[in-house]
Design a protein that fits this description.
This protein is mostly helical and about 260 residues long. It contains 15 helices and no strands.
Amino acid sequence: MNCEEFQKQFADYAAGKRTAGMDAHVAGCQACAEDVAMWARLDQWPDEQPSPALRERVADMIRAYRSGAEQGEKPRRPGWFGFLAMRPAFQFGVAVLCIAAGMIGGYEMAGGSRRSAEIAQLQDEVMKTQRMVALSLLQQQSATERLRGVSFSNRVESPDREVIQALIRTVKYDTSVDVRLAAVDALARYSAQPEVRRGILDALAEQQSPLVHIALIDLAVDARLTQAQGVLRNIENDPKMNRFVRERAKWGLQQF
């Protein structure tokens, strides 16, 4: 097992689902062993107690979600909290971030240059953890797990090139329309980046799902992606294209 294979299964390893191959890799790889040690340190932190106001907001969100479910609503793009409320692995990831936030707050109150250095190190570890969890979930076979990965990528404050590329690949090639739609929403935050803009253009030209096509047209308009005009004209003039997609392409050209 190499580092890339181990990182894809890191979430399972951290949750205790370990194999002999994983253990052997950790024993011989210092970088991955440090990641495992970092998770062990996080596990030793005391539980952070939420405030009464936070408890009430969470309860309101759960009640709203359950009310929608009871009325037979099936949202096209499930909110991140729906998965938080139902998925233990996602709860674990968010819990880690909450604990880290509490620790950072405690250090800030204590003050001191030494603590400032410790805060910086902790923040770096949290960002590394966020990235690792998002990439691991995006590699899963289950569409539900991949959707959780897209949702978790929104929590990465400074995503690196690997996270951005993973989201672009998801928009282009994921077999689930819901996952692709969620990835389009996630990429909207980074639409000013040249790599993302190229990815939007490529996805527009290759997309097969009408729903995703329309979402990409909206994103191109919002991002003022003038380079998309040629692709939009091709879509508008393609008689084989879905009628609603052609109408949306025409609308998009009018916005430019």
